[in-house]
Amino acid sequence: MWQKLYDELKDQNFIIIAVAMDSEADAARPWIEVAAPDYPALIDRDHRVAELYNMVNVPQAVWIDETGTIVRPAENAGAYEGFRAMDLETWTMPDDELATTINAQATYIAAVGDWVRLGAESGHLFDADQARARTATASNESAQAHCHFHLGQYLLRHGRETEAHEHLAEASRLHPTSWSIWRQAAEKNETGLAASAEFWDRVKALGDDHYYPPVELAGMPK
Amino acid sequence: MTVILSQLGEFEVPVGPAEGLWVEPAEATAMSGWELRPEGLCRGDVCVPVPPGKAETLTADGKINLAAFWDHMGMPIAHSADGDVWALGEGAENRTAELRSLEAPDFTQPDLAGVQHSLSDHRGKKILLATWASW
User: Fold this and answer.
1) How does pLDDT run along chain B (135 residues), one tens digit per residue?
2) Cβ B127–A112 below 8 Å, yes or no?
3) I need a surface site. Which of A45, A64, B59, B101 has the fewest CB within 10 A?
4) Which chain B positions have a beta carbon within 8 Å of A120's beta carbon?
């Protein structure tokens, strides 16, 4: 998804760091091998980056400037939830939802390009107060959830599955808005997707809430 | 052996499973970043005193009960049923304060070849930190 953008921008003092929230490198490996990125593609088996940046789903992204300052805090990286309109018998999406999904991603990628080329002159940056106001905060429950998640992943790696899943379930209970915590531990289908009936039930239960919150950028779907 | 998973990494200490997590002060510092000083358990300028009523549950025989300190500080902690693996997390307030400073928290993670990369390796460039997953 990012390689084309990176090809256009890599001589502009810019780097992409892609981080897979995947407890097993082998699950992420085929995707990385196909994308063949020439920027770092990292594997975060314990979801440490999600914990540090209060991320709850993928894809999420953070814009960081040359001084190491966050200029857009963790947010949905241009995904649109058109998949919620998918026909689960034919696995097809209505044309307009598909078009919106493609357009949203293109709009987000164009905004990144704009920032890289224009820097502080880009219209897409937040000032410090705006960035702070948009920074997701950790709660005692979410912090405790990541602790259980970390322990659960360790136990899983050491063959203690039953006990591991108790901690992963506790993590999800404490941090119910984290799709990453839930989906990582959830049952996967033959293509490795956590898209069981339980997943769709959870999505339906969102009602009017978003799976991918709208990105605060001109031209993005609401 | 007891395994400790902290913000600083994965550690093994030569103690058997027991009530609490009793470790040498130097081990506690290496594993957690917190150091026992006369004024209490300290990290940087922040010190958490040992209250007189709780002294025996927090320190004894020259050792620190890191688990009891974590509880005392209100920081997240979890352990396996056998007490042989402990996860010591960072508190929500610290985490939020760190993010609100807008200084991007550093991290180090491996690529597929096992090569470690840190965010701070790329200081001086604009960085798009982008997450994804196979699932």
Assistant:
1) 999 999 999 999 988 766 789 999 999 999 999 999 999 999 999 999 998 888 889 998 999 999 999 999 999 999 999 999 999 999 999 999 999 999 999 999 999 999 999 999 999 999 999 999 999
2) no
3) B101
4) none
User: What is the complex's ipTM, to 2 decimals?
Assistant: 0.97
Cβ(B108)–Cβ(B118) below 8 Å: yes
Tell me how far apart the alpha carbons of residues A96 and B102 are, in angstroms, rounded to a whole number.
Answer: 38
**Inter-chain touch B99–A180, beta carbons under 8 Å:** no
**Token pair belonging to B84:** 């042989």
Q: Do B125 and A13 touch (CB under 8 A)?
A: yes
Does residue A92 sit in helix, strand or coil? Answer: strand
SS (H, E, C) A46-65: CCHHHHHHCCCCCCEEEEEC
Inter-chain CB proximity A70 and B102 less than 8 Å = yes
**Domains in chain A and their CATH numbers?**
3-133 (3.40.30), 140-204 (no CATH)
CB nearest A31 (choices: B3, B100, B134)? B134
Beta bridge pairs of residue B37: B40
- B19 contacts: CB under 8 Å, gap ≥ 6: B83
| Beta strand spans in A6-116 (E) | 14-20, 41-43, 60-64, 70-76
DSSP 8-state secondary structure symbol assigned to residue B47: E
pLDDT in the model for residue B17: 66
Stronger pLDDT, B99 or A1, i.e. the higher one: B99
Residues A79, A57: Cα–Cα separation, whole Å: 11
A131 touches chain B (CB under 8 A): yes
